[in-house]
Each structure stands twice: as C-alpha cells, then as structure tokens.
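As a representative case, we now present a protein record of this kind.
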Amino acid sequence: MVVPFFVLALLASSSDQGRALPRAKPQEEIGFGIDVAKRGLWNEAHFRFAKAVALAPENAHALNNLAVSLEQQGAFDKARAAYEKALQIEPGNTYIQQNYDLFREADDKRNRKKKAAPKP
C-alpha cells in the first residue's frame, strides 16, 4: 500500500500535538527581562516581566520588576498598582519598599507639576 506524501506529512505534524511545549519559568523570564532592561529595551523587559507575573501571579519580585518597567514606559497608575501588590505579598521586602518609595516621590513631584502648570 502506498500512502500519499501529504498524509505522511499530516501524521508527522499531528504527532507533536500531544506533547506540551516546554513552559518558561518565572525566574528565567525575570532574568531575561533584567538583561534587556539594562540595555534600555523597556518594551521587551515589560513583556518578560508581564509573562513572569502571568506564570506566577504571587511572585513579588516579578511584580516589582513589572512596576519598574511600567514606570519607565509612563504607565504610572499601573506601576503603582504593581508595586502595591508586590508589597502586599512581601510587606517586609526593603528592596521593593525602596523602589516604591522612590516611585511615589517621583510620581508626587510629577503630579504637583501637572497641577501647577498653567492651563491654556
């Protein structure tokens, strides 16, 4: 019996469907995100940190890094929420607290400047 080529190709491609693709680990995504953030690639860093949070929503370090990337992209309300969630998960983490304190100081300054700016 001769089996047409397209049937063999279909069988070969369908044989991989039952296998799960290797799942990324949150720490790998965080590490990659940090590497690209150091190079100023904030869109890619944000993508990696968001992926880490999706994989491990209770990972305070992933949330902290996501907040930093959001801050760098100007998404200040989302950054504040990510920092606050990270601190809810790890309230005693001084590293996250320092980042949040610096963020709040800069955000408060930005907000004061907006209010003081003359309206057209």
